[in-house]
Every structure is written in C-alpha cells, then in structure tokens.
User: What shape does this take?
Amino acid sequence: MRTKVCIIGGGPSGLLLSHILDANGIDNVVLERQSKDHVLSRIRAGVLEAGAAQLLRDHGLGERMDREGKAKDGTRILWQDRPDFFIDVKKWTGQQMMAYGQTNITEDLYAARERDCGAVVCDAKDVALHDIETDAPHVTYQKNGQRHRVHCRFIAGCDGFHGASRQAIPATHRREYERIYPFGWLGIMVEKPPLDDFIYAYHEDGMAMAAQRNPMLSRYYIQVPLSDTPEDWSDDRFWEALLHRFPVDVAKTIHTGPSIEKSIAPLRSFVSEPMRHGSLFLAGDAGHIVPPTGAKGLNLAISDVYYLQRALVAHFKDANDALLDDYSGTALMRIWAAENISWRLTKLLHVFPDEDPFDQKIRENDYDLLLTSEAAQHALAYEYIGLPYAT
Ligand code: FAS
Ligand code: PHB
Assistant: This one.
C-alpha cells in the first residue's frame, strides 16, 4: 500500500487526525493493534476543554456531543474541614467545559471514519516503523497471518504510551521527563444519576472524585495505594471509603449502586522530547502522559492533532514545511503547561505517603489562597479551561 500519512493507533488522536487529513484530501491509513470493540470498551476521560469541543464541532464531529454532552461552568473542590471552592471557568474565562466521555468521542470518530470510508485497519499486529530518518519511510504489520507494508511520506505515532512509535526514536535522540506518583485512581462506573458537578475532594484518607457520563451514568474515583488491585475493593468497601471522603451534606446526595466497571489507573507525568524524529511525528499519549487530576490527557491529544494536521496540510497543499518544523516546539509549549497544572492539582489534592508536616502546611496554604485571592482563582480557571491554541 502507498499513502501520504501512515497513522499508528486508532484511539482519539489517530482517528481524529485521519478524519481531518481525509477532509483535506490527504490520503492516510490508520493501523490499530486492537479490535474496534476493544478500543471502544475502554473507560477513560470525561471532560473536554472548550477549545477541544470547538475543534470537534469545526470538523463536523460535534453534533452528538452538543446533543448528549453537558456544558459545565467549572469544577468544585471540597476540602476536609474547610469551605468549598469552585474553579469557575465561566466567570473568569467566559468559556465552559463539556462533559462528554472519551468513549463517546471514539464512537463518534469510528462512525465518521466508516461513513467516509476512511482507511482504518484494526487487528494490525506487530506494527514496525522503518526508515523514519528518510523521506520515504514505511511501516510493516501482520494481519490474518499476512505481512503488509505501507509506503508513506510521513508517519504519525498516535499509539499511546505503550506504543511502538516513541520507541522507534533512538534513545540517544530522546529526552524523557517523568514523575511517577505513589498512588493510583480506583475508578468505578455505576448506572445511577450523577451529582450535577464534577467534584474533587481532598481528605486525609485520600482524594475522591465525582464525575459523570450521562443522566443515568456516574463515575467515581478514590485514591488508593499502588499496591491495591480492583479485587481488593468490593463495591461496599468502595462506597464506604468514597462517602467518608466527602462532606456529609454532599455524601448524602450520592446515588450508590453496583459497579458495572471497576479499574485502577496509575498516575504518571511524562514527556518525551522532541515530538518529531525525521518523518515520524508523535501525537497524544505516544509523546506525553498527565495524571487525570486536571482532565488534560485527552485534551492534549486533541491539541497535538490540531497542530499536526495544519502542518501536514501546509506541506501537501502549499509545499510549506514551516509548521512541520515548528510542530514539536509549538505542541510542547501547551504540553508543558498541561503537565504543570496537572502536577500542581495532583500535589494539591492527594495525600502523599512520605510527606512531612511542612508539605501539608504548604498544601493547605495553597488551598486557602484559592479561597481568598481572585488573582489565584483567575489563574487557575485560565489553566483549567485549557490554554488557547497557538496561532
Ligand atoms: P490512546 O492510548 O487512547 O490510543 C492509542 C491507540 O493505539 C490504542 O487504541 C492502542 O490500542 C493503539 N496501539 C498501541 N500500540 C500500538 C501498536 N504497536 N500498533 C498499533 N496500534 C497500537 N484523560 C483525561 O483527560 N481524563 C481522564 O479521566 C483520563 N483517564 C484515563 C484513564 C486511563 C486508565 C488511561 C490509560 C488514560 C486516561 N486518560 C484520561 C488519558 C487518556 O484519555 C488519553 O489521554 C487518551 O486516550 C489519549 O489518546 P491517544 O493519544 O489516542 O492514545
Ligand atoms: C472523568 O470524567 O472521568 C474525569 C473528569 C475530570 C478529571 C478526571 C476524570 O480530572
């Protein structure tokens, strides 16, 4: 097969890039390791930044989101024995977030690819990248016992943290930055009405979070030790821990019930620089990871795709490579801003096992500043809604 761009990974990054490139008449193929059903079975993000929601609308992908999603004015923070705080993005930025699950977005993307007869190859095994330092790279993969080869001009590595793309860049050409957190998020999905707000709750036993997917689907999380497994947490044990970490007046409004999904996500901050090596460009989790505390992971994947698609369109339509040459630097500016806010919110809202009393006093002072300073409230809202996309 010959194409212009070979996209590795059929998650949000890869599918969105494929959709936009096809809309611009740029041939591409997506190679996805798993089945479509497996990809759609993943439970992940739940909140879109205003910029990400608008980008989906701009590319004809916003109809179901605007019908089924819910615009939110901000996110609440509750704090054991302290007043509540509201990250009021509507007040300070004039924009709203969109509560719309990643699973829905991926469903919408697959539906659009199928409607438009996009080239998406699922169950593509043993994907390998070749000659990425030349202008004529190619990708090989196995499917149904046959070996396939895709000749292309560029490769987009959209294959997530555990993918093959980043590893194809020689270690001598990669700079990696990482923070691994000493806890995970145990998340459950329950078919009950959610709270109206997204809520992060700080408690001495560990952080808790209330989220939502639709009027009859709630998502909740609690901070757990890295050594725990979902099997350690019966539904009863989960609900007891979660309700204890919320103030009584909020806990009594939570609709508990049997979990239909239960999993533990490890928390990590990670960036691999640069996001380009020769004809290979990384986008999304392939290049970076943030802890879910700031709801930035999926949103960063979307902004990477925004920068990469405009660079590829400029190359193929205008023979202009300036945006391609700037892609890594431009994307990394927004990536590090998201890494920063995600790290700070993770430090603020979690109990870190080996901290000393000084750290806890700083944490409490950071929260008290949010309660008392409009400048601090404005700054947090500006970062939480997501920095504007670079022009
Ligand atoms: P993805 O990992 O979604 O997709 C990569 C795709 O590439 C996958 O389908 C994979 O099967 C495929 N692939 C991998 N290796 C391959 C290979 N060698 N060949 C071919 N295909 C290959 N973000 C938030 O904003 N909020 C959250 O609450 C949140 N919760 C999360 C919970 C978990 C458990 C995880 C893992 C992530 C969470 N995230 C969250 C972040 C998440 O939403 C990612 O940012 C988002 O999926 C990024 O999308 P992609 O870059 O497309 O990567
Ligand atoms: C979610 O909806 O699952 C969610 C929302 C915001 C976060 C993390 C997770 O920061």
Notes: DSSP finds 13 helices and 20 strands in the chain. The radius of gyration is 21 Å. The chain has a mean pLDDT of 97.
